[in-house]
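Appendix B, record 7
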Amino acid sequence: MGYNYLEGKIPEEIGKLKSLSGFAIGANKLSGELPSSLYNLSSLAIFFAAENQFHGSLPSDMFSNLISLQEIGIGGNQISGPIPTSISNASSLQLFDIGYCSFVGKVSNLGNLKDLYWLNLNYNHLGSNSALDLDFITSLVNCTELESLVLSSNNFGGVLPNSIGNLSAQLTEISLDFNQIHGTIPETICNNTNLIDLDLEYNHFTGFIPNSFGKFQKMQLLGLSANNLMVESPNERMNMADVTRELNLTKDVFLQD
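Structure tokens (predicted):
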């Protein structure tokens, strides 16, 4: 039912469809709050409601009964409040996309989502520019299928933990741009040798760009501008022969004598 001109609200009666496994209503003009009966559909595996006009917050126990849920995409709505802590119960979750909403607060431990390959939290109000904002990244070490980690345009502060280098060998994208992250870029990030896209722009990173960035032989987009970074060994940087789309080092990056 996606990409139509459907209007109105999702009726509570949706909860009577006990065998429903997929519900896709993205890109419509639906509004109101998501009905609470939806969260009792234990057979529901796929739920897409992105790009509508839904509002309200999600109950903290939302995922308690959604034991079959594999993919959920509700981005591009006006949904607010914290991410439900019960998300750890959705152990079959593979895709979690809540970009372009108004979620706030701390991101809880996601380590139980071992099959997660896509995590998109961009363009929300998550984090509080505090030291513990990025602690949840360490829990992602358990997500051995993770391919895409998109946290752009939030309010994440603190330093980037060394565990950023212990993530899935499948990881191809890390987007942390437009946050409040400070400190140095950890050398461990270079362990993610399959990265194609690394975007750290518009933060408060300081210190040297790690020489080991030369490990990124598959990199196509590297965004480091609008920080306070220094280049210690420009020759090492130039060893990234496959950077073809964008090497954005031009702003607030200078050579160290």
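Remarks on this record: Residues 236-246, 253-257 have pLDDT under 50 and may be disordered. The first helix runs from residue 136 to 139.
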